[in-house]
Design brief:
Elements: E1 4-8, H1 19-28, E2 33-36, H2 53-63, E3 68-74, H3 81-95, E4 99-103, H4 122-141, E5 144-148, E6 153-158, E7 171-174, H5 178-187, E8 190-193, H6 205-225, E9 234-238, H7 252-265, E10 269-273, H8 285-298
Parallel strand pairs: 1-2, 1-10, 2-3, 3-4, 4-7, 7-8, 8-9, 9-10
Antiparallel strand pairs: 5-6
Length: about 300
């Protein structure tokens, strides 16, 4: 399968002061998709502007025509399947069926306690995720859903007319552990990873490639257990969290080398961050745009 190139645009700009222009430029540059993070705030951006993911994507849907749109990623940290499903169906309708839902178990960031709860343990996050995804799948494919779970309940939740995309909009499931990989194998149309976080500080690019190879092998085993061909799933790498850091964005040649190595592993989509000056995602905008327009064509 050929490699696709996408971008992630963090929601840090007012819509009429640069926000809309970025999404429109992403479409002009030919990116396959443009995603945004679904957080209430995030890391070093906490004390600056940060807008809501779904309203931003709705605005982006009205400002573009062809670009796929999505979250990388939504999580149960502050979402409930019933309300999320309603918003996603609306977004899928407004976009004309261009939405992909990136979804993960969440983490220990600011979202974890913003609603006043104690941060969940990794096991608690996995437990909730294991209930969240199947219920959201039902809510997006069935007209009326009633289900009482340990964490989430739906009582005659109505979601007519459903998604434009049938049977529902695609899920891109972010997971590296066994329980999350099983969910990806069963419910995902794509799988997402950022690599092995333990290698970010002191690992090497070579070690990262081997770790990613191991993750894909585990995904393959989970798919086999689900009686599914792993080739049916797109494999998405969110760039910027491996030991390579931002070096692949220093030149078109550097990115082609990075992308080629990961395409050989089986990745079908690489997502790069739209440059933000003064942040971990700082990069030369001209080189970034050259990568967008030239890199994939050079991979053959």
């Amino acid at each position: 399968m050929s490699l696709r190139l996408s971008t992630v645009i963090l929601p840090v700009d007012r819509w009429h002061e640069g926000g809309r222009a970025k999404w429109q430029r992403a479409e002009e540059l030919g990116f396959h998709a443009a995603y945004t993070y679904d957080h209430l705030s995030w890391r070093s951006f906490r004390d600056g502007p940060w807008f809501g993911a779904l309203p931003t994507l709705t605005a982006a849907a009205t400002a573009t025509d062809r670009l796929r749109l999505g979250t990388l990623v939504t999580s149960p940290n502050f979402r409930h399947p019933v309300t999320l499903a309603k918003e996603l169906i609306s977004l899928d309708d407004i976009s004309g069926g261009r939405v992909t839902l990136g979804i993960g178990a969440g983490g220990n960031g600011f979202d974890a306690t913003a609603l006043g709860q104690e941060a969940w343990t990794p096991k608690e996050r996995a437990d909730r995720f294991g209930e969240f995804v199947p219920l959201l799948d039902r809510l997006l494919t069935e007209g009326a859903v009633s289900q009482k779970g340990v964490f989430y309940t739906a009582e005659e939740a109505r979601n007519l007319p459903g998604c434009v995309q049938r049977p529902r909009l695609p899920f891109a499931v972010a997971a590296t552990g066994p329980r999350g990989l099983k969910l990806a194998a069963k419910y995902g149309q794509a799988w997402v990873t950022t690599g092995d976080p333990k290698l970010y500080e002191e690992g090497t690019p070579e070690q990262s490639v081997e770790a990613l190879r191991g993750q894909i092998e585990k995904l393959g085993k989970a798919c086999a257990e689900a009686d599914r061909d792993v080739a049916d799933l797109d494999k998405i790498l969110l760039h910027g969290f491996t030991p390579d850091r931002n070096r692949p964005l220093e030149s078109v040649d550097a990115f082609v080398d990075f992308a080629g190595r990961h395409h050989e592993l089986g990745f079908t989509e690489i997502v790069i961050h739209w440059p933000i000056a003064g942040s971990d995602f700082a990069a030369d905008l001209g080189i970034f745009e050259a990568i967008a327009t030239e890199a994939i064509g050079r991979l053959g």
